[in-house]
Fold each of these.
Amino acid sequence: MEQQTSTTLTDQAPADPAATDDALATQPVGYWSGLAHTAVTRHLRDAMARIDVTQPEYWVLNRVHGGTAAPTREEVVAQLTPLADGPQDISRVVDQLLHRGWLRSGNGQTLHLTAEGEAARVRLRELVTGVRAEVHRGVSDTEYVAALKVLRTMVANVEGLRTP
């Protein structure tokens, strides 16, 4: 049996955006993680929209750029679909990037970045790095790592897994 990290169980309080620091231990993690996800994703997508790019397009450009071998369309779709809003989104994004001239399709349906696609990926990387700096303002790397480790443990707890 796993040992509790606290000697007392904390009652769950209703979500309260104005909760004081001493009341945060009673706040629902689902509310706060969901609020963070929504705010950060909206901020990032708004920044990308100002340069006429979507977050899924960025995912595809990065996936095609990374790795030792050119991925196939099917590989890109399979890897990125769990992140997307729907099952057809990534396939549509691949089509959009092919039409835009940022991707080209090689033999066997492998995908490659064009020079324009690589330039867009580099511009997006710079934009995302700036957005990350905005989001992380006032949060040390140590605090950030600690927060992610807590979230990873909570996910493992509800999925019945333990992360090393």
Amino acid sequence: MKIDVKDRHGLTMIDTGNQVSVPAKDKATYRVAMASTGRLDEIARCEVNPRATADR
């Protein structure tokens, strides 16, 4: 999965991602450590890449 954290101007503050295993037709929670950025009050939204690749 890939996550982009954007400010109110639409600029990417942080882009992060990791491989996450999710069973078919299920969901998973992925936590991202944001406190270390020191800019929590500037976050306006997070965008998650909606594409997933099937692993067989």
Amino acid sequence: MSAKSAEARGQVEVVLTKAGRTKIRYKSMLMEDNGTRVTVRAPWAGAGVRDFGFVRFEPGDVFTEYYWRDRWYAVKEVRAADGAVKGWYCDITRPAVLTGTELVVEDLDLDLWRSADGHDVRRLDEDEFAESGLARTDPEAAAAAVSALDELEALARGDGFGALLS
């Protein structure tokens, strides 16, 4: 399939990288691109069920994913197959780059989860972030990542992501 036909159908391939390697790549449907924020929708791209203890991602789940070209995070609304919102999984990333039909984001290890009811907000993978050495190799990026996580946590503990995602 040519890139032109993929663009005509609104198909975008999301490529999540980590430490210079492709972590996962999956097809999604482009919902919106306003020049700053790119919104895509995709089914759960993992193999089988991923049980985090506080949420399960499983076949049939649908992710509406919001990526910014000028922010250091992505916010993913997670819905079950029946349409019920499970919550929001947030990745701390470098700003997204959309080239043709490929959306590339670099995962910086830090994550945040907010449950649908807002009662469970948790920072994730801070140990992995510390072990990554980013604070040593790229202190500006590390500071931007921590600031982004703080910003998302404040939103999650406040009114949620409604204003951010509207």
